[in-house]
Specification:
It is a single chain. The chain is mainly beta. The protein has 2 domains: 3-91, RimM (Elongation Factor Tu (Ef-tu), domain 3, Beta Barrel), CATH 2.40.30.60; 108-172, Roll (SH3 type barrels), CATH 2.30.30.240. Helices cover 7% and strands 46% of the residues. The protein has 2 helices and 12 strands. It has helices at residues 74-80, 169-174; strands spanning 6-15, 22-26, 39-44, 47-59, 63-68, 84-88, 109-112, 116-125, 132-137, 140-145, 151-155, 160-163. A 6-stranded antiparallel β-barrel has the order 1-2-5-4-3-6. It comes from Flagellimonas flava. Keywords: Chaperone, Cytoplasm, Ribosome biogenesis, rRNA processing. It is found in: Cytoplasm.
């Protein structure tokens, strides 16, 4: 399995018990939907390795307590602390309406209320405090904030995202 075919689920943050159980900090708004998983991919080096789960359950809201089949003592658990966990993209719950996954909108066209077509989404930058669409129009890069105040409609069939950008923002890039 390749990372490109998966989504980031979370990271092993600590050991939980002397029997090898670990705690995983999940990167999700709905941790309860991952409570009964049978397996995950653990990032070890440059590889995603499948790990099978004997038991997993929520632990204090966004933490998941996992008992892996392959990890039954503290030393084995220590080897995976800090490792990232992934699941196949096919396991993402479907989103509807104006909600979307970042990987899902790459290639969508941004349609601004004032300027019309302002470019194709090439990437999503989520490393700063404000998440941004990175779009390209006529060889120029535009950075458009991802915000409920700006996004007015997501049309999956037409592969478009309708936006109402703040006055002057698009002009900064396309002038």
């Amino acid at each position: 399995m390749r990372k490109e075919d998966c989504f980031y689920l979370g990271k092993v943050v600590s050991r939980y018990s002397f029997k090898g159980e670990v705690l995983v900090k999940l990167d999700t708004d709905e941790p309860e939907i991952y409570e009964n998983m049978e397996s995950v991919f653990v990032s070890l080096g440059n590889n995603l390795v499948p790990f099978f789960i004997d038991r997993c359950r929520l632990h204090k809201s966004a933490l998941l307590r996992i008992d892996f089949e392959e990890v039954k003592e503290e030393s084995s658990a220590d080897k995976i602390i800090g490792s990232e966990l992934y699941l196949p993209l096919t396991m993402l719950p479907p989103l509807t309406g104006d909600k979307f996954y970042f990987h899902e909108v790459i290639g969508f066209t941004l349609l601004d209320e004032t300027h019309g077509d302002i470019g194709i989404i090439k990437a999503v930058n989520d490393s700063a405090s404000q998440e941004l669409f990175e779009a390209e129009k006529d060889g120029k890069e535009l950075l458009i904030p991802i915000s409920d105040d700006i996004i007015t409609k997501v049309d999956r069939e037409a592969k478009t995202i309708h936006v109402k950008t703040p006055e002057g923002l698009v002009d900064l890039y396309l002038q």
